[in-house]
Inverse folding.
């Protein structure tokens, strides 16, 4: 039968399809060194494994997409919050350097007092700049921007006081320095009220610091969740390919060889999740940008929701790939090494 | 090629599978390993494959002592041993060609050589025309021959077979045995675990008989009495 066609004459066989090369390149004819050969086949195996892992994911698109979505959402959430936080810190940082003290004078102070105070304040060393807004200017501005022009016409007299905007010098721009300045200014008779922007700026700073920590804690937790999700998905993949793993180990596959496809699967999950996260973030930013701009303009702020920079996008994808790889690695470490060929004959006597 | 020195294997739980097994197989020798179910045939093969470690004694394969080999080294020993299973352990998610190619991919054989060597192995077992089929489409005998092609594709010096004809009818079994004979003629050491007494007698080769974990015959050259049951 077929069996005795074997051993004695395999060489008489015409070369198989796709192998008809002039002068068979066996042995000496090759110019590549054994090391190059080995490296080449190692790399080509990596390529093949990477491609094969990706194709496996494509073959079950719904399941893969679900995993990608889970990863994408889990990553987009903390990254989005970090972006928001970054924007907020941008606001407070921008204002911090121009912390200003606003002096409101008494209604009856009059132009002379205003001039006197302006000169007096401008000569102080701890104040770098003094800007005057007279009550007439203030009214005109208010009339223009508030939309209450008609209502203002009913008023007999201007309800707004003269105002001085002071920019303190850098060396007193701290809590004690500002408090001392404010205390001193409040003693002046003509001054009705002193207002410092710093108060709420400090609060904003503290709040953003606190939020920052919260977001990082959240990012850590969600990162761990991503690792676990990928780990579990890879565990299932390992179970599905148990036979293949056994055979690979049996014919002399090293641990690295057996792990490789699963690590690549983890990397593909990570990359897909990162891309989904990026798309989600961009969509959300685009959707939110209109209202945010409007809100910022209402507060006369330069506040701007900053999107992901090129480096940020790269970092997001890298982190995502690393998380996917880490999840796969944990699953592989935990479950693959436990599959040993001595279980192979469980089914037979 | 294979050397067992006072090898014992006791499993956790106290079951003793092998006890003081001593034998030697030289290069190019073909021998049978026989005995009742549970006599320790599979355990003996697993010790050679490093699927199990001996509790006592030494297992030496190809001049290398296996009992102290670090776990990391195991794959490199297995690459020199071809194994054929009763249930052939083929993968049904890929073609016959890809099944046979596995040992070559594992060892990092360059891609262009894989095709040539896989087809040589398939030709040897007479299945060249079926390389693109899924093993599930093949008959039992053909599947077993694919298993053999996979076991010999990287030209191992040692070939182990665990009940390779267990599921086959006598005619197919004889074909398979003939294949093993051909391998031994080209210098491959072949050890076949089987309890198909009729077939073993017909082959007239050395027989190692295990009884309750002890080697009761075959530690030297074949014994007529054992072979022919006189």
């Amino acid at each position: 039968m077929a069996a005795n066609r074997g051993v004695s004459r395999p060489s008489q066989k015409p070369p198989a399809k796709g192998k008809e090369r002039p002068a068979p390149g066996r042995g000496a004819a090759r110019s590549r060194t054994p090391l190059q050969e080995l490296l080449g086949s190692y790399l080509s195996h990596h390529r093949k494994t990477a491609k094969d892992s990706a194709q496996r994911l494509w073959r079950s698109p719904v399941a893969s997409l679900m995993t990608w979505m889970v990863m994408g959402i889990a990553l987009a959430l903390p990254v989005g919050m970090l972006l928001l936080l970054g924007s907020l810190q941008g606001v407070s940082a921008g204002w911090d350097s121009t912390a200003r003290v606003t002096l409101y004078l008494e209604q009856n102070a009059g132009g002379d007092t205003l001039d006197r105070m302006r000169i007096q304040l401008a000569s102080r060393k701890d104040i770098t700049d003094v800007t005057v807004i007279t009550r007439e200017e203030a009214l005109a501005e208010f009339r223009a921007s508030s939309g209450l022009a008609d209502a203002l016409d009913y008023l007999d007299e201007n309800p707004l006081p003269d105002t001085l905007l002071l920019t303190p010098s850098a060396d007193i721009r701290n809590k004690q320095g500002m408090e001392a300045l404010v205390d001193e200014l409040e003693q002046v008779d003509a001054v009705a009220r002193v207002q410092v922007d710093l108060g709420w700026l400090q609060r904003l700073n503290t709040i953003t610091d606190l939020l920052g920590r919260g977001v990082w804690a959240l990012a850590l937790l969600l990162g761990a969740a991503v690792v676990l999700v990928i780990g579990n998905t890879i565990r299932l993949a390992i179970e599905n390919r148990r036979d293949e793993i056994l055979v690979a180990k049996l014919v002399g596959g090293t641990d690295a060889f057996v792990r490789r496809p699963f690590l690549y699967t983890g990397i593909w999950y990570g990359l897909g999740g990162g891309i989904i996260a990026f798309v989600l973030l961009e969509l959300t930013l685009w959707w939110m940008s209109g209202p945010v701009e409007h809100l910022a303009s209402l507060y006369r702020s330069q506040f701007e929701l900053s999107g992901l920079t090129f480096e940020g996008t790269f970092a997001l994808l890298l982190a995502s790939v690393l998380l996917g790889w880490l999840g796969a690695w944990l699953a592989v470490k935990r479950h693959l090494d436990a599959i040993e060929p001595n279980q192979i004959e469980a089914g037979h006597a | 090629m294979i050397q067992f020195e006072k090898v014992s294997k006791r499993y956790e739980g106290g079951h003793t599978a092998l006890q003081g097994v001593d034998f030697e197989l030289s290069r190019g020798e073909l021998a049978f390993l026989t005995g009742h179910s549970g006599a320790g045939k599979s355990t003996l093969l697993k010790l050679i494959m490093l699927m199990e470690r001996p509790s006592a004694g030494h297992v030496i394969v190809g001049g290398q002592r296996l009992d102290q080999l670090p776990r990391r080294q195991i794959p490199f020993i297995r690459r020199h041993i071809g194994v054929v299973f009763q249930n052939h352990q083929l993968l049904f998610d890929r073609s016959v060609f890809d099944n046979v190619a596995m040992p070559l991919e594992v060892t990092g054989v360059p891609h262009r050589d894989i095709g040539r060597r896989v087809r040589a192995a398939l030709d040897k077992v007479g299945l060249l025309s079926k390389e693109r089929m899924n093993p599930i489409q093949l008959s039992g005998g053909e599947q077993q021959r694919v298993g053999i092609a996979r076991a010999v594709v990287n030209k191992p010096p040692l070939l182990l077979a665990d009940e390779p004809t267990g599921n086959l009818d006598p005619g197919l079994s004889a074909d398979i045995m003939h294949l093993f004979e051909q391998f031994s003629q080209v210098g491959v050491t072949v050890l076949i675990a089987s309890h198909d007494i009729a077939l073993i007698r017909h082959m007239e080769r050395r027989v190692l008989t295990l009884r309750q974990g002890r080697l009761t015959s075959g530690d030297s050259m074949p014994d007529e009495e054992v072979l022919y049951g006189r």
Observations:
- Chain B has eight helices and ten strands.
- The beta strands of chain B are 2-10, 16-25, 30-34, 56-61, 64-65, 81-84, 158-162, 189-193, 206-211, 214-217.
- Residues 35 and 210 of chain B are 5 Å apart (CA to CA).
- Chain B touches chain A through 55 residues (CB under 8 Å).
